[in-house]
Amino acid sequence: MQDRFKFRQVRVVFFGLCITGLIGSVYSTRGDGGGPRYFAVVNARIVTGTGSVIDSGTVVIAKGLIQAVGANVTVPPEAWVIDGKGLSVYPGLIDAGTDLGLPKKEGSESTPTGRGGRRTAPSGEIAKGPEDRPGTSPWRVAADELKTGDKRIETWRNAGFTTTLTVPDGGIFPGQATVIDLAGDRSDDYVVKAMATLPISFKPIGAWWGFPDSLMGTIAYVRQVFDDSNWYAQAEPIYESNVTKFERLPYDRTERVIAHGGGDKEIILLPANNSVQFLRGLRLADEWKINAVLYGGQQGYEVAAAIAAKKMPVLVSLKWPERDKDADPDAEQTLRDLRFRNRAPSSPAALAKAGVKFAFYSGGLSTPKDIFKNAKKAVDAGLAPDAALRAFTVDAAEILGVGDRMGSIAQGKIANLMVTDGDIFNEKTKVKHIFVDGRWFEIHEEPPAEKPGDRKADSSLISQPRASANGAELGR
User: Fold this and answer.
1) Nearest-CA neighbor of 304 among 270, 339, 275?
2) pLDDT per residue over 240-257, tens digit each?
3) pLDDT tens, 379-395?
4) Which domains does the chain have, with CATH numbers?
5) Which of 414, 386, 434 is nearest to 53 (CA)?
6) Residues β-bridged to residue 179
7) Per-residue pLDDT tens for 88-136?
8) Which of 327, 196, 211, 353 is nearest to 261 (CA)?
9) What does the alpha-carbon distance between residue 134 and residue 126 come to, in Å, rounded to a whole number?
10) String of b and e for 411-433 (b: at least 16 CB within 10 Å)?
11) pLDDT tens by residue, 26-68
12) How far is CA 414 from CA 215, 402, 408, 432, in A?
């Protein structure tokens, strides 16, 4: 009798272990955020971002990547299924220039810095020349300063943006910009490419008693920084190969960072918003032998052919020029300003016609609604909707050096997707679901005020997985 009881105990324990293993296998599909890691969007219109459209197809997501996409795709039994009938799947949108996720700092990063990264004294020590390294901190990396509590992250994500180029501000060389995805448990989870671009500003930072205090002085200073960094890049390996023969190299933090970045052909962002700035940027990029991308882009309609001849990509700000709201209504406006405001939204169409690769960025716009409204202005001014979509997706990804992993719906790419109930540029279209790195977010509209007797309808489009997983909940 005792042996039989022990045998029953063993069977119960074994059965319990089997059940535990089965449940564990189901829950192992859950990501760090508490949600499953296998999804399938079925019966949906799939806009791949590369020009092809699948009228009724399936996208399978597995462990953060797109596992399969097509009209005839087998759905894995462990996948949570979203019925996409009447819905469209797009690549997640990319904002190619914003300060999303960065804390606001009061002047601390625009303070001139000394050689080797030493900041000047707050008492007002003045930069007197290039060797003082004014407004220069290329060792700053946006990835190291991300604050995931920025409420705009959720706002951008809910509108369909899954990725941004987050750019530090302040000074001539403010720091390294970072490509981030807009979801994660910690700030580290957001980072896709930590040192993606090195932005440069030509705005003078010195007063009349400091350096540089003019556009000419700023450009001369940037030229000197690149010359110094190129020298360091050549001198360092020579010294390291025979340290007993050559004098020790002086340490300069700026030279070291830029030299090492330049060796990897890091993308350098140069400002160019009007025709003069465009031509200057093209010339300086050649002179400095850098892998340059121009940003601003709003007067591209005047010099599109010259940009195309140099095969220079452009980031176009969607914050179209407009009259200052506080301006005197009776003040005269120049014909040049009026023409610029009128024609700026036509620049993307002109760039596209000339064959220039470009991407859109928010440029300080405060809401995604304004981003879409201004993108629609570009479409109304002649830009093809397909080209506008590329500027938010595949072209943006390629310009930022991450086209191998995002920007389109293709097998093996990061599962950054948005699911909508209509065309992306229709103002009535609503985002229903977002995937960021394979994490699922269901977008809920603000519910209307309920009337007495009204019944709440179940709006969920998510079905249970085909394998039994009673009790499993979808989490963010």
Assistant:
1) 275
2) 998 889 889 889 999 999
3) 999 999 999 999 999 99
4) 1-91+408-448+459-476 (2.30.40.10), 93-407 (3.20.20.140)
5) 386
6) 165, 193
7) 999 999 999 999 999 876 544 444 444 444 334 334 566 666 667 889 9
8) 196
9) 9
10) eebbbbbbbbeeebbeeeeebbb
11) 333 333 445 678 999 999 999 999 989 999 999 999 999 999 9
12) 42, 10, 9, 19
How far is it, in rounded angstroms, from Cα 284 to Cα 203?
A: 16
Sign of CA dihedral 237, 238, 243, 246: negative
The residue written with tokens 């994660």 in the block is 184
**What is the distance between the alpha carbons of residues 3 and 108, in angstroms, rounded to a whole number?**
77
DSSP string, 40-85: EEEEEEEE-SSS-EEEEEEEEEETTEEEEEESS-PPPTT-EEEE-T
Q: Cα–Cα distance between 314 and 76 in angstroms, integer?
A: 41
Tokens (6 digits) for 104: 């606001």
Amino acid identity, residue 75?
Answer: V
> CA–CA separation, 151 vs 100, rounded Å?
9
Instruction: Tell which residue, 161, 234, 223, has the closest CA to residue 434.
Output: 161
8 Å CB contact between 4 and 449: no
Beta bridge partners of 98: 166
Structure tokens at 75: 């759905």
- State both tokens at 219: 């450009």
CB atoms within 10 A of CB 28: 11
Total Cβ atoms within 10 A of residue 187: 16
Torsion of CA 419, 425, 426, 427, to 10 degrees: 100
d(Cα 415, Cα 435) in Å, to the nearest integer? 6
The DSSP 8-state label assigned to residue 106 in this structure reads S
